[in-house]
Design brief:
Number of strands: 20
Distance between the termini: 49 Å
Radius of gyration: 23 Å
Low-confidence stretches: 443-452
CATH superfamily of the largest domain: tm_1862 like domain
CATH topology of the largest domain: pyruvate-formate lyase- activating enzyme
Oligomer: single chain
Helix content: 25-40%
CATH class of the largest domain: Alpha Beta
Structural class: alpha/beta
Strand content: 15-25%
Mean pLDDT: 92
Largest sheet: 5 strands, parallel
């Protein structure tokens, strides 16, 4: 029996698909790269923007002939297109889909297979992992066991903030933090399978734990980082995505204090104009964001900061757009993901504000910010030429090893040895806006990169 998973969207979707893949293998299924070869095909979907939703519909339509040729193929739909809602409208629209599962919940699909006798016990694999003392809920897919270098670990599911443009609260449900001991157990299991780096995930990850401890004054995420730091075999820890309103000095100080926690922050600003920020219901001003960036840079030496920006929000004037442009030019952040506003059903922005910025104007603004950020990133990265940076090697592409620095810079280098999972000191010889190229300058002993 064979399975195929198609994934689009955020890191949370990637984490959900990885867990589903491991569960499928425990049921006796083997992965295949083409849907046409599979007995079970699952689409893990994203609807955060119309472009992503359109891709999902296109992929769904492409499976209809497959189902007609092979009616026995099981087709599953999961993720944000399904959401936490009645699936009846989707069943009517896509009658060739057999089972619907909400985000982060493969249960309906696994139950469907079990009820129809389409899964064996997976006893051999279960026995093998039991012998290794790896809890089954936290297994990697078999193809990744002992070879995966990094892994995403969901910490907060859903979101209750409800920015006016965002569909996530309507599709992933309200904010729910996972118990700390459960996250720690997963991190230990991943480290036991060879994972060196984990990234904690949440729509607003810096709100982690406040729903579990409603009267707590200190940051639960800071405590979680400290406890993760104690796990043997774990070498790097990251977290995303943060909300500026919840990024406390206590959390910034934890990043600075804990050697395993990487000096990199994901801090979406979304806009540089206070009126637009208020209509987005972001909860801060452009000056608040400036002060946060200044505090982060003061408290965390060498910190890199990435951001997200939406252009063409309803009513955004040229002057308001230029305030966003000027903010990015002033702050000179390491990365910026620029997206055109896309009205999403159910959201307050779609119900209250007309989508009145023309598509061609949205694209012009997006390109202007992309070009600005490319110049800034290129200048920041150029300063690394001639320096050595620590790279955690994740794999090989086109004859070169690749990995990331602690500050999330993508680095490529050549080396005849197998460097997978090692921390390697790389001497940077070339820098572009999006990646670096260099030469290996280290060997790894005892899990630590050493120059030589």
């Amino acid at each position: 029996m064979k399975y195929h998973i198609w994934t689009i969207g955020c890191q949370m979707n990637e984490a959900d698909s990885r867990r589903l893949a491991a569960a499928m293998e425990q049921l006796g299924y083997a992965p295949v790269s083409r849907a046409e070869e599979a007995d079970v095909v699952v689409l893990n979907t994203c609807v955060v923007r119309q472009q992503a939703e359109d891709k999902v519909y296109g992929r769904l339509s492409s499976l209809r002939p497959l189902k007609a040729r092979r009616p026995e193929v099981i087709i599953g739909l999961m993720g944000c297109l399904v959401g936490h809602r009645d699936a009846a409208p989707l069943r009517e629209r896509f009658p060739w889909v057999d089972v619907f599962a909400p985000p982060s919940d493969p249960g309906p699909l696994l139950d469907y297979l079990a009820e129809r006798g389409l899964a064996d016990s997976g006893r051999a694999l279960a026995a093998e992992n039991a012998a290794r003392r790896i809890p089954s809920p936290f297994l990697l897919p078999r193809s990744e066991q002992d070879r995966a270098v990094s892994a995403y670990v969901p910490a907060v599911l859903g979101c209750s903030h409800a920015c006016t443009y965002c569909i996530i609260p309507y599709r992933r449900g309200p904010e729910r933090s996972r118990p700390m001991e459960e996250i720690l157990a997963e991190a230990r299991a991943l480290a036991a399978q060879g994972v060196k780096e984990i990234t904690l995930l949440g729509q607003i990850v810096d709100r982690y734990g406040y729903d579990l401890y409603p009267h707590r004054r200190t940051s639960p995420l800071a405590e979680l980082l400290e406890r993760l730091h104690e796990i043997e075999g774990l070498e790097r820890i990251r977290f995303l995505t943060s909300h500026p309103s919840w990024m406390t000095d206590e959390l910034l100080e934890a990043v600075a204090r804990l050697p395993k926690v990487c000096e990199h922050l994901e801090l979406p600003v979304q806009a540089g104009d206070d009126e637009i920020l208020a209509r987005m219901r972001r909860g801060y001003t452009a000056d608040d964001y400036r002060r946060l960036v200044a505090r982060a840079r003061a408290l965390i030496p060498g910190v890199s900061i990435a951001t997200d920006v939406i252009v063409g929000f309803p009513g955004e004037t040229e002057a308001q757009f230029l305030r966003t442009y000027d903010l990015l030019a002033e702050l000179r952040l390491d990365k910026a993901h620029i997206a055109r506003y896309s009205p999403r059903p159910q959201t307050l922005a779609a119900r209250r504000y007309p989508d009145d910025v023309p598509p061609e104007e949205k694209e012009r603004r997006r390109k202007a910010l992309d070009e600005l950020q490319a110049r800034i990133a290129g200048e920041i990265n150029a300063r690394l030429v001639g320096q050595s940076v620590e790279v955690l090697v994740e794999g090989r592409k086109k004859g070169r090893w690749w990995g990331r620095t602690r500050t999330d810079k993508l680095v490529f280098f050549e080396d005849p040895r197998d460097r997978t999972g090692q921390r390697v000191m790389v001497h940077v010889t070339w820098a572009g806006p999006w990646s670096l190229i260099g030469e290996s300058r280290s060997t790894e002993k005892g899990g630590h990169a050493e120059s030589g």
